[in-house]
Each structure stands twice: as structure tokens, then as C-alpha cells.
Amino acid sequence: RIRREVIPANEIGVTFSDIGALDEIKKSLQEVVMLPLRRPDLFTGGLLKPCRGILLFGPPGTGKTMLAKAIANESGASFINVSMSTITSKWFGEDEKNVRALFTLAAKVAPTIIFVDEVDSMMGQRTRVGEHEAMRKIKNEFMTHWDGLLTNAGERILVLAATNRPFDLDEAIIRRFERRIMVGLPSIESREKILRTLLAKDKVEDLDFKELAAMTEGYSGSDLKNLCVTAAYRPVRELLKQERLKDMERKKTEEAGTSSEESTSET
Ligand code: ATP
Q1: Which residues are in the AAA+ ATPase domain (predicted)?
Q2: How far, in Å, CA of 144 to CA of 23, rounded?
Q3: What is the pLDDT of residues 100-155, one digit of tens each?
Q4: Are 160 and 115 in contact (CB under 8 A)?
Q5: Which whole-number Å values give the CA distances from 27 to 105, 134, 172, in the listed order?
Q6: Does residue 166 have its Cβ closer than 6 Å to ligand 1?
Q7: d(Cα 12, Cα 45) in Å, to the nearest integer?
Q8: Ligand 1 centre and the CA of 30: distance in Å?
Q9: Residue 132 CA from chain centroid, whole number
């Protein structure tokens, strides 16, 4: 199952240029991700330690998954997408085995970015009422392998995770994310940039990007994308409507033709 989630760098298909705005975040990701993955030899000394965990947090649809994919692509790393459902199994003991398999596979296809989406559902707080025994085991197994990366500077594996609920994370997990980056809702300037990126390949000469950005306060990147897709369908819908109208006109004239033929043959 985990094998299916591996995307080689050259097949990821998302680049930084597909992501509008978020310039500062892109820059800091490049800084902390590229070097350790590409040049682990620079980190074999005592002081300089490669970063092994980055947490992206913020509201849904703000581009966290896109950022993770783009950074894997740009740094030439394989991308493994994991979530609770990739790891859990109905078979006893299988969950921990899956976590082990994940790290073994990551080492095999290294450099690798292990992306844990909705990390809170996999690594929530220990003290939370009703924490499942299975979840505790997954978490402990994950942390053991993760710590293994810390002691081996040559290992070119990085854990990147995303959550909309950072406060639900286990303390021990939060500590392991050396960098925590907030990906918030876009400002008016950012919305304009995102809209320009989303519509870069479309003919929209008469669109006032500034005005649209001003009208979309509170929209995430994903909301803006949905808005553009819906708008793009409007002319298509219009075209279909016109064609349907033409069709109806044609049918009407055909019917009128046959009925006048019928009435002539009767007379
Ligand atoms: P979630 O927390 O719901 O998983 P997310 O933060 O991971 O969301 P993404 O899955 O990366 O968000 O974004 C969803 C979609 O929204 C993307 O596939 C993309 O089409 C669009 N999108 C979001 N942010 C941007 C952006 N900054 N530039 C261009 N497109 C964006």
C-alpha cells in the first residue's frame, strides 16, 4: 500500500511556479530542505545538523500539500504521501510493520520527503481521552525511526507534515519538528498573485485582478481555484445552452415540417 504512495521527483508535476504568493515560505523551505537532501556531506560535522522535521500548519486549502510536493520536485527527492489510512490495517501488529516499511522504502528511494497529511490524526496528543492503543503504537514506532534519522546525518530523508489543528499534536511530536511554518489565508496582494498564477494560461485580458482580489477576502487558495473553475465553466455552459436552444429550434421546425406534410397528404 505504501509503495503505491511513492512519487519519483520527475513525476511530481508541481513546481514552485504553480504556487502563487507564499514567497517567504518557499524561500525558507528551499533553505532548510534543499541543502540537507542534496549535500548531506556538509552536515557531518558536529554543529551543523540537518533539519529532519518541518511542520506546515494553517487553514485548509492554503497550499500546504502543494508546497510539500513542489519542494520535493525542486530538490529532486521522491515524495511519499502518508496518512492514517495508509498506515493502519485491520491485522494485529501490521500498523507498526507498515511504519517500518515506510522508512525502509524511504531509504531505498532517497533522497525522500515523507509527507504526513493531517498529522494530527496520526500523532495527536497522548493524553487525549480515548487515545487508541493502536495509534500510540504507530506514533512510537514512527518516532523511533524518525529519531534514527537524527543520529545518521548521511540519511537523506525528511519528514514534512501538514495540519489544520496544530494544537491537537502531541508535545513530543511538535518538538521533533524543528521548523514550524504557518501557512495562513492569503492577504489581498497574495490573492492577486494566486489569481494571476491560476489564470496564467487562460485568456482573461479584461479581468480586473485587483478588484477580484479585493472582493475575495477570507478565500483560501483552494477557494480561489474553485471560483476560477466555476467561472471558466460559465461560457461553456452558455455555449451548451445555445446549442440546446438551436437543437430545440431545429426539432420544432422539423416537427412543423412533418405535420404540414401530414396535413397536405390528408387533403
Ligand atoms: P488541506 O489542509 O485541506 O489538505 P492544503 O493546505 O494542503 O489543504 P492544497 O491541497 O495544497 O491545500 O491546495 C488545494 C488546491 O488549492 C491546490 O490543488 C491548488 O489548486 C489550490 N491552491 C491553494 N493554494 C494555492 C496557491 N498559493 N497557488 C495556487 N493554487 C493554490
Answers
A1: 50-187
A2: 34
A3: 999 999 999 999 999 999 999 888 776 555 557 778 888 899 999 998 887 776 67
A4: yes
A5: 28, 38, 27
A6: no
A7: 32
A8: 19
A9: 27
